[in-house]
């Protein structure tokens, strides 16, 4: 039996893991759909395709159907209101193209694209982990990626699975130092989810590390030039969408004003000042010094974990990405229920959690992750009356 397993192609093992995980997650989503009352998006007890259209799926549909507004909508008090500029075009325009080709409507095509990219992401995640981990550990890391508490988002009409695939591909290329091949991947990735600036930061840290260690790991001048050029390109792609929003609307701050519109229920109208949103969030969710203290402990604990033996085994490059993305989140995002979804690009940490080989540990972790799917679906996807916990 063990010999037969070892002879099984890696891609077939990953497909089996992915397929089983989708059965579990689909069952959870169908359970909630069967109990879903009437809401702003669906009637009572919607079918799967309808249930997959909640929340920001509507905005992606708007982009696919009618594009972006040339005039920013304003609220009664003159501030920019919520609008489609907050949602990047990679995913909805791909779905739109397939809709034109197939003649099918948004719902089935958008879900198909998300599901297909979730499989593609699982395959590339495995190949990425195999560059730094043994095969058995890499496969269990894929298990954790596929059944993570946020994994239901990979099979609804959101851009997360497409972005996860592109990010895994970019990290796979970066681990192999194939800098030129990164350029088209970064270009699409940065227009799928906000990630260009975070990846530029990670590339900068990667370059610094290679310079520091060049005595034992040569870093030729031509590689330095390539890596620096790709880092600059990633940074420019990170600014491309705000620039395009400015060009179309005539407002220099069109994109940031649009993003800030979603924070109004929490903070009112405030300017974006880097690295202040999490301090504001700490004060909002837990007024007084205790909120700031907890924030400091969480941030310190997160970065300390990156230096543990488990995390160190996934290598410097993947840890640099996780750290760079963490710094990016701290700089620009306000912590609330959708922040959990924004943590998905930290999936390389699944390789750290996959290290222990104890069967009991792994079974317990799988059970906890599946339970986490149910908890997340209850609080963040399922709509229960006046719901203030968007995914």
From TrEMBL:
Keywords: Endoplasmic reticulum, Glycosyltransferase, GPI-anchor biosynthesis, Membrane, Transferase, Transmembrane, Transmembrane helix
Membrane topology recorded in Swiss-Prot or TrEMBL: Multi-pass membrane protein
InterPro entries in the cross-refs: PIG-V/Gpi18
Pathway(s) the chain acts in: Glycolipid biosynthesis; glycosylphosphatidylinositol-anchor biosynthesis
Places the protein is found: Endoplasmic reticulum membrane
Chief location category: endoplasmic reticulum
Transmembrane segments: 12-34, 106-126, 138-159, 179-205, 225-248, 284-308, 320-340, 360-381
Protein name, as recorded: Integral membrane protein
Organism, scientific name: Leifsonella bigeumensis
Lineage: Bacteria, Bacillati, Actinomycetota, Actinomycetes, Micrococcales
């Amino acid at each position: 039996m063990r010999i037969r397993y070892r002879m099984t192609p890696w891609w077939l093992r990953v497909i089996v893991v992915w397929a089983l995980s989708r059965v579990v997650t689909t069952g959870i989503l169908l359970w909630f759909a069967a109990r879903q009352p009437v809401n702003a998006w669906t009637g009572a007890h919607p079918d799967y395709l309808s249930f997959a259209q909640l929340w920001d799926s509507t905005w992606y549909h708007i982009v696919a159907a009618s594009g972006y507004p040339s005039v920013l909508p304003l609220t009664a008090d003159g501030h920019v209101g919520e609008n489609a500029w907050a949602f990047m075009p990679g995913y909805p325009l791909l779905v739109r193209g397939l809709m034109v080709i197939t003649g099918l409507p948004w719902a089935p095509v958008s879900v198909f694209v998300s599901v297909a990219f979730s499989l593609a992401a699982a395959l590339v995640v495995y190949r990425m982990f195999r560059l730094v981990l043994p095969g058995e550990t890499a496969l269990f890391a894929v298990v954790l990626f596929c059944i993570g508490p946020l994994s239901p988002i990979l099979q609804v009409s959101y851009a997360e699975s497409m972005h996860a695939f592109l990010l895994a591909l970019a990290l796979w290329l970066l681990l192999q130092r194939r800098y030129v091949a990164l350029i088209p991947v970064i270009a699409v990735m940065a227009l799928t989810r906000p990630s260009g600036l975070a990846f530029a930061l990670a590339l900068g840290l990667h370059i610094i590390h290679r310079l520091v260690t060049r005595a034992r790991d040569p870093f030729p001048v031509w590689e330095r030039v390539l890596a620096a050029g790709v880092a600059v390109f990633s940074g420019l792609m990170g600014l491309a969408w705000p620039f395009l929003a400015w060009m179309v609307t005539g407002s220099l701050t069109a994109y940031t004003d649009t993003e800030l519109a979603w924070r109004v229920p929490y903070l009112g109208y405030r300017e974006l000042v880097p690295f202040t949103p999490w301090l504001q969030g700490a004060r909002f969710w837990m007024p007084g010094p205790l909120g700031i203290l907890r924030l400091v402990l969480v941030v310190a604990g997160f970065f300390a974990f990156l230096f543990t033996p488990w995390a160190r085994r996934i290598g410097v490059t993947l840890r640099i990405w996780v750290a760079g993305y963490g710094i990016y989140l701290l700089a620009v995002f306000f912590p609330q229920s959708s922040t959990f979804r924004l943590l998905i690009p930290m999936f390389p940490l699944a390789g750290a959690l996959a290290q222990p080989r104890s069967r009991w540990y792994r079974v317990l972790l799988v059970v906890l992750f599946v339970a986490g799917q149910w908890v997340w679906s209850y609080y963040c996807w399922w709509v229960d009356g006046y719901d203030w916990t968007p995914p």
